[in-house]
């Protein structure tokens, strides 16, 4: 391999957070100088018209010199959201069968199919997503 060839940065430490059709990857990588930085990748699973799946991704690179301000602003905006709207998640408006008049339906009521889908999602391992190429550059 020549010196000018690109080598993929090695992942030092990694965490995964799944949220429905979205998966968030928090990866510690190493710079050429030997320092560490963080990449945060959002991967969203989409179904194509032909029935196959693809993944749309967005990546943030965060370097140590920005950690303090990033954490400060993240805490500030998340605190603001909780103060303004509370911790309750208002998600049923996005459900296909949402009826604003029928408020009697309990929020926690899940169908068997929803519970099965949630269980399958929880059983996925990090390795199920390693075939996805996350290099944007």
Description:
The chain has a domain at 8-86: Nuclear Transport Factor 2, Chain: A (Roll). The protein contains two helices and four strands, in the order ββββαα. It has helices at 67-85, 112-123, and strands at 11-19, 22-30, 36-47, 53-63. Helices cover 23% and strands 30% of the residues. It is flat. 1% of the residues are buried. The protein is of the alpha+beta class. Strands 1-2-3-4 form a four-stranded antiparallel β-sheet, with no helix packed on it. Mean pLDDT is 76; it is low at 104-110 and 120-134.
What is the makeup of the main sheet?
4 strands, antiparallel
Instruction: Note the run of SSEs as H and E.
Output: EEEEHH
Strand order of the largest sheet: 1-2-3-4
Mean pLDDT, nearest integer? 76
Shape: flat
Low-confidence stretches: 104-110, 120-134
- The helix fraction, in percent, is 10-25%
The class by helix and strand makeup works out as: alpha+beta
Please give the radius of gyration in angstroms. 20 Å
CATH class categorisation of the domain at 8-86 = Alpha Beta
With helices defined by DSSP (H or I, 4 residues minimum), what is the helix count? 2
Residue fraction in strands: 25-35%
Would you count the extended β strands for me? 4
Report the end-to-end length measured between terminal Cα atoms: 19 Å
